[in-house]
Design brief:
alpha+beta, elongated, about 240 residues, disordered N terminus
């Protein structure tokens, strides 16, 4: 398809917007969905081709979601308004994921914890400790982000964790943080922090149920998280 061919010049069956209306969003590729966001205002430029350039440049949607307005403007065919549109679209997706927190899921196992936090953590470039505050039925009260670390280091004091738990009258907490490297294997620092927080929780009568580390799956390691409780560090 020539680069100058516009969306409106394509056959109806090949236009992303019409295909979405006819068959639903799931049949469209990443590039085609991006093209729908970019379509308005492009003159003489194939939005699908720009979408393909973005997918190729960033590799994954998670990487694309981390791109700033300035980064996106470095791609030929994307000006400030288009870059803002893309950043806003990914921000909406994260906010929608955040709303799921208010459905008060039962968080008595690491799979449910990761299901709640996975999408938000995939776009983080530094380690961030999240404390899930739970009631007596192990249902979520809210998620508190306590601190940001460097690329691979997280520093936290027990008072920061339990101040939020006490204020929320939480009966228990689950700790969670991300490993930007993608490998969820706990470090020695992760283990030490966990043990310190378990002891602090025992003194305050607030149970630390688990510490879950979120990474990314690989063909060799299909599970994208590690549970320190499952690994035996809560004994």
């Amino acid at each position: 398809m020539p680069h100058s061919l516009r969306l409106k010049d394509q056959p109806v069956s090949e236009r992303p917007r019409e295909r979405l209306a006819e068959h639903g969003a799931d049949v469209l590729s990443h590039a085609e969905l991006i093209a729908i966001l970019l379509r308005t205002g492009l003159k003489g430029v194939n939005a699908v081709e720009i979408g393909k350039q973005l997918v190729q440049k960033y590799g994954t949607l998670q990487s694309l979601a981390r791109a700033s307005v300035a980064d996106l403007q470095n791609v030929k065919g994307i000006g400030r308004d288009k870059a803002v549109t893309l950043v806003a679209a990914f921000a909406l997706a994260r906010k929608m994921a955040g709303e799921l927190q208010y459905e008060s899921p039962v968080l008595d196992n690491p799979e449910n914890v990761v299901r709640l936090l996975r999408e938000k953590n995939l776009v983080k470039s530094v380690e961030t400790l999240q404390v899930l505050l739970l009631n007596t039925r192990r249902r979520l009260i809210r998620v508190e982000e306590i601190t940001d670390g460097t690329l691979d280091t997280l520093l936290v004091h027990p008072r920061e964790v339990f101040k939020a738990a006490i204020a929320a009258n939480a009966a228990a907490v689950v700790l969670a943080h991300n490993h930007p490297s993608g490998d969820p294997t706990p470090s020695e620092a992760d283990i030490k922090v966990t043990r310190d927080l378990i002891r602090a929780g025992q003194l305050l009568k607030i149970e630390v149920l688990d510490h879950v580390i979120i990474g990314r799956p690989t063909p060799e390691r299909p599970r994208d998280y590690a549970s320190l409780r499952e690994l035996g560090y809560f004994l």
